[in-house]
Amino acid sequence: MNGNSPLGPNVDRVDKQIDQWWEQWRGRPAIDRLFYTASNLGDFSLIWYIVGGLRALPPGRRPKSAIRFSALMGIESLLVNQGIKRFFSRVRPAEATDNPTSHQLRQPVTSSFPSGHASAAFCASAFLARRSRLGPFWHVMAGAVACSRIHVRLHHASDVAAGAAIGLLLGKFAERFLPRD
């Protein structure tokens, strides 16, 4: 694939248009801070493991749910990062070192397609939103983590869209088949 979208040249054009549109938001301190922080918190699903761990603490105290959630996130990561990504060799739009030095980013070693950050975020939000009045909040958080990868130029928009779709499907599958608290 060598940097081209596995979905074809039309998707490459859309990716380029979205990246050009997104350029207006880059370099703005508050927006950069939000998206670079979200991107870093999404590394290795850190934010989602923190959230899952907090579910085991009082006052909610749902340790079984926290364990199921952590297992789900581990399975999602294996499927996407060690499974699906190995079928593609899409080049990322930029290197982590191409970003401002004030924002330290980890350089991923896997294919750009699909976005593991987006997949994990939407898998987590789909699972966390079940029977929760915080559902919209989890989806907004997932969107911020997913879009952060476009902002920091470590994914194309189509990588993020594909990752989000995969994550949402995995999360909905888990929501349906894992026992509820």
Please specify the SSE layout and strand pairing:
Blueprint: H1 9-22, H2 29-42, H3 46-54, H4 63-81, H5 116-129, H6 135-151, H7 157-177
So how many helices?
7
Helicity, in percent?
55-70%
For this structure, what is the CATH homologous superfamily? Answer: Phosphatidic acid phosphatase type 2/haloperoxidase
Q: Return residue spans where pLDDT drops below 50 for at least 5 consecutive residues.
A: none
Could you tell me the mean pLDDT?
89
CATH class: Mainly Alpha
Shape descriptor reads globular
Q: Helix-strand pattern, N to C?
A: HHHHHHH
* Cα-atom radius of gyration: 16 Å
Can you count the beta strands?
0
The termini sit apart by: 44 Å
What keywords describe this structure?
Vanadium-containing Chloroperoxidase, domain 1; 181 residues; 60% helix; single chain; mainly alpha
Detailed description of the structure:
The protein has 181 residues and is mainly alpha-helical. It has a single domain (29-177), classed as Phosphatidic acid phosphatase type 2/haloperoxidase (Vanadium-containing Chloroperoxidase, domain 1), CATH 1.20.144. Helix content is 60%, strand content 0%. It is built from 7 helices and no strands. It has helices at 9-22, 29-42, 46-54, 63-81, 116-129, 135-151, 157-177. Helix 2 packs across helix 6 (135-151), helix 4 (63-81) runs antiparallel to helix 5 and helix 5 (116-129) packs antiparallel against helix 6. The protein is globular, with a radius of gyration of 16 Å. It starts with 8 loop residues before the first helix and ends with a helix.
